[in-house]
Design brief:
Helices cover 30% and strands 25% of the residues. The chain is built from 12 helices and 19 strands. The strands form 6 sheets. A 5-stranded antiparallel sheet has the order 3-2-10-9-8, with helices on both faces. Helix 5 (141-151) packs across helix 6 (154-165) and helix 6 (154-165) crosses helix 7 (168-181).
Length: 410
C-alpha cells in the first residue's frame, strides 16, 4: 500500500502523550490543506486560546472574513451577516452536503453503517487530503464517514458518492438537487469534496446545509472526534477543527482550505438547548477563521437562548359540537418550533387561547377552531392554529333512528 512516510513515529509518540493509542509505525493523517503541520495541531494545549471579550451588539464584532453568518440552529434566525450571499469557493466545506446525503441515505434505510464499500480507481486517485485508499480496498460506510468528517478525506468522500449514486456525476447532481430543496439559491456544486474551486456557495447557504446536517444526531459521533484511528490503528486521524478540542459545546463541523477559497469554516456548537451555526469564508489565515467562528458563537451564547413552549401549555379543552354525531370534538395545537429569545426574557413568555365556544356539525378533521398565541409583553411571538383531531358528521335521520334504537335495546 502507498502509505505516507515521514513523521509517523514522532506523531505516534505525541498521540500517545495525548492519550490516544498509536500503533508502532502508524501513519498520521489529517487535512493537509489546512495550512498547519500535524506537529502544530498536536502541540497545542487547552489554554492555547485567550478569553475573548463579547460585544453587546454585532457592531462590535470583528470578523476577518470575506463572508460570514451566525444562525440559530433551531429556528434558523440570523443574528449576524457579512456579505452572506456572496458567491465564493468553499473548499472542503463542500463535504457538509456530501455528509448530509450520506446521513439521509442511512436514516432513510438506503444505506447502513456496516455496509461495505469498495474503492474504485477514480476514488483512489483523487489527491489532496486523503486516507490513501487503494483501488479495491474495502471499508465500511462508518469508517469512510469517519475519514471524511475527521480528516476531510477526498478519496473516502468519492467512494461514498459512487457507492450511493453509482457515479460521482450522479451524486453531484443529487447534491445540487438537495441544495435547491433547502433554498440554497447561491450554490453550485461541481464535486463532492471541494477540490474544484469552480464550484461556489455562500455563507448563508453553508449555514442552511450545516443546520440541516445537524438534524441527524448520529453525525456528531464523527464531527466531534479530535483524534481516532482506522485500519486497526495503522492510520491515525487528527481533526484540524480546533473548536472540537478547545470550544465548550462544539459539535463540529467542517474546515476547508484552498489557495483560492482561503481558510473557511462551518462551526456548530450547542449548550443546553441552544445551538448555533457560525460560518466564516475566505479568511486570510487559519487563526482568523477560528477566531471569527469563536467570536460569533460567543456572541450567540452570551445574549440569546432557544425557547420551546412547555408541553403543558399546549393542552386545550374539547369543543362542544352542535347537531353532530358526537357531543364534542377534541382539538390539538400544532407544536411550535423553537424560537430564539434574548437571554432572560424566556421566563416572561405568556400564552393566550382564542377558542370557539362551540362548532356546528359537520366538523372536518383538521378544521381550525381557534388560535394559540405566544406573547412577550405586547409582542406576539407566534400564532398557532388549534385544529379538530377528528371529523364529526352532522346528525342524519338514519343515524338518529339507529342511535335511538340502540338506546332502547341497551
Amino acid at each position: 500500500m502507498k502509505w505516507r512516510i515521514g513523521i509517523a513515529v514522532g506523531c505516534a509518540v505525541a498521540m500517545l502523550f495525548m492519550g490516544l493509542p498509536a500503533a508502532a509505525g502508524s501513519t498520521v493523517l489529517y487535512d493537509e490543506e489546512s495550512g498547519e503541520t500535524v506537529e502544530q495541531l498536536l502541540a497545542e494545549n487547552a489554554t492555547v486560546w485567550p478569553t475573548m471579550t463579547t460585544p453587546e451588539t454585532t457592531a462590535g464584532l470583528e470578523i476577518h472574513a470575506k463572508s460570514a453568518v451566525l444562525m440559530d440552529q433551531g429556528s434558523g434566525t440570523i443574528l449576524y451577516e457579512k456579505n452572506s450571499r456572496e458567491h465564493l469557493p468553499i473548499a472542503s466545506v463542500t463535504k457538509v452536503m456530501t455528509l448530509l446525503l450520506v446521513m439521509e441515505a442511512i436514516d432513510g434505510g438506503r444505506l447502513s453503517w456496516q455496509e461495505t464499500v469498495t474503492c474504485s480507481d477514480r476514488a483512489a486517485s483523487m489527491g489532496g487530503s486523503q486516507i490513501w485508499l487503494e483501488p479495491g480496498e474495502i471499508m465500511t460506510v462508518e469508517e469512510l464517514v469517519k475519514a471524511a468528517a475527521v480528516v476531510s478525506a477526498n478519496d473516502a468522500c468519492t467512494a461514498l458518492a459512487e457507492h450511493i449514486s453509482g457515479t460521482l456525476e450522479a451524486f453531484v447532481a443529487a447534491m445540487n438537487e438537495r441544495a435547491a430543496q433547502l433554498g440554497m439559491q447561491n450554490t453550485r456544486f461541481v464535486d463532492c469534496s471541494g477540490l474544484d474551486d469552480s464550484g461556489y456557495s455562500c455563507a448563508y447557504d453553508v449555514a442552511l446545509m450545516s443546520r440541516e446536517l445537524m438534524t441527524h444526531p448520529d453525525i456528531e459521533r464523527f464531527t466531534t472526534i479530535w483524534m481516532d484511528s482506522l485500519r486497526g490503528g495503522e492510520s491515525q486521524l487528527v481533526n484540524t477543527n480546533k473548536l472540537v478540542r478547545h470550544y465548550t459545546g462544539a459539535t463540529g463541523l467542517k474546515t476547508g482550505t484552498t489557495q483560492q477559497a482561503g481558510h473557511c469554516l462551518a462551526a456548530t456548537a450547542k449548550r443546553e438547548k441552544t445551538a448555533f451555526v457560525a460560518v466564516v469564508l475566505g479568511c486570510d489565515t487559519t487563526a482568523h477563521r477560528f477566531d471569527g467562528a469563536r467570536a460569533l458563537l460567543d456572541y450567540g451564547f452570551s445574549g440569546f437562548v432557544s425557547y420551546t413552549p412547555p408541553a403543558e401549555q399546549l393542552t386545550v379543552s374539547a369543543v362542544p359540537v352542535l347537531h353532530g354525531q358526537a357531543e364534542q370534538v377534541k382539538v390539538e395545537v400544532e407544536t411550535p418550533a423553537s424560537m430564539l429569545l434574548k437571554k432572560g426574557t424566556d421566563s416572561q413568555v405568556t400564552s393566550s387561547v382564542e377558542l370557539a365556544a362551540d362548532v356546528q356539525a359537520p366538523v372536518e378533521k383538521g378544521q381550525v377552531l381557534g388560535t394559540w398565541r405566544l406573547l412577550l409583553g405586547d409582542e406576539v411571538l407566534g400564532e398557532y392554529p388549534i385544529r379538530a383531531v377528528q371529523a364529526v358528521p352532522a346528525v342524519t335521520f338514519r343515524w338518529a333512528y339507529a342511535w335511538l334504537l340502540s338506546c332502547l335495546l341497551a
